[in-house]
Here is the input.
Amino acid sequence: MDSYQTALEHWCEEEWGQIPQAISEWYTDEGMAQVFMRLNRSVLIADFTVSEDGSLDCNEHLQIPLDRWNPGSIQAIRTADGRVRFRHRNLEIHLAARLRAPEWGQALLEEWLMSQRGDVLRPKDRTQRIASINRTKMSIERNLNHSNLDAVQMDFLATTASLASVESKLNSRSGTDESE
Here is the structure.
């Protein structure tokens, strides 16, 4: 994979306008390279053919933007023809099923996207972090103040009374059954 690192970075910069933050190999040999790339606000699954001169030609790719992704929305399954299909919404790409389990790739992509989402939501400086913690604390306090156990206690008493009534009816029935 190291031999393709520079070519992958060059391709990504030309096509996507950025150098990938991380590249992980799915499968590579002398004629092909299938990789996952972490970009600034998305992940990319790409399937390349390696030319004789060592350059890469992209056969197909699947980009999963952070703003269109939800946790668990990436599917990865082994198909009947022996390949692995990665799917997000209505887009899919098929990769070789040689070395890795589909779940490995799915977990890696989900992890990258989850960390990107965390980076977006994470406050940038100390003041913002303190303000965020205070807002969370106030929200929890409000929820605790509004939660009231009176309704639960009333339900409990009604259920207890209902059980006592059923029990007394059962006892009175069993008493009449024995006398017959």
